[in-house]
Amino acid sequence: MFLFNPENLAWLSHILSLRFLDLSLVDLGAAIQWSQAINKLHSLVHLNLNGCVLLPFTTGTTLVHLDLSSNDLNGSILDGFGNMISLAYLDLRYCAFEGEILFAFGDMRALEYLDISGHGLHEGILDAIGDLASLTYLELFVNQLKALPKTFELFLSHNELEGEIPKSFGRRLVILDLSSNRLYGSIPDTVGSMVSFESLSLFESTPK
C-alpha cells in the first residue's frame, strides 16, 4: 500500500529536477510549509492544485501552468500572480474571490489561457486583463459582468450582459458563448466576416 502524508511535504524541496507536479484533490489544509517547499523547485513549470483546501499563498515565478481551481482562496485575487512572467495557463475557477479584482496582472504577457469563472467579479476584471497581449482563451461564466472584453475564445454565459450584441467582435474570434444573458436585437452582420469562427451559443439570450 502507498502511504502518503500530505501534512509534511518538505521532502519535495529536494527533488530539484521536478518539472511536473499534480496534487489535485490532496487535502493540503493542514500541510506544514508546503508552499515554501514547492517554491524551492526552480525547475517546476506545471503545477496542479485543484481542490486542495488551500489557504492564500505565494507561488514561484518559473511556472508555465498553474491550476488552483476549486480552492477557498477567499478575498481579493493574489498579488503574486503579477510576477509570474512565464505563466501561460492560469485556472482560478471557483476560488471564492469576491468583488472587483484589486490588482493588475502586471507583466503576465505570456498568459494565453485564463479561467476566472464562478466569482462575483465586476468590470474591474476587464481593466486587469486589458494588457494581456497573448491571451487567446478567456472564461468568465457565472460572474457579474455588464461589458464585453475582446479575445479569441469568449465564454461569458450566466453574467449580467444587457443590450444589443456589439458589432466590434474581432475577425479572429473562434468561439463565442453569450448564453443566459439579457441580450436583444439582431445578430450583427459582422459575424459573417469572422473567418475563423467555429462556435456560437446564444442559449437563453434573446436575439432576433
TrEMBL record:
InterPro entries: Leu-rich_rpt, LRR_dom_sf, RLP23-like
Protein's UniProt keywords contain Membrane: yes
Keyword tRNA processing: no
Record-linked Pfam families: LRR_1
Record GO cellular component, one term: membrane
Domain of life assignment: Eukaryota
Chief localisation class: membrane
Keywords: Glycoprotein, Kinase, Membrane, Receptor, Signal, Transferase, Transmembrane, Transmembrane helix
Molecular function per GO: kinase activity
Compartmental location: Membrane
Membrane topology reported for the UniProt record: Single-pass type I membrane protein
Full protein name: MDIS1-interacting receptor like kinase 1
Annotated source species: Vitis vinifera (Grape)
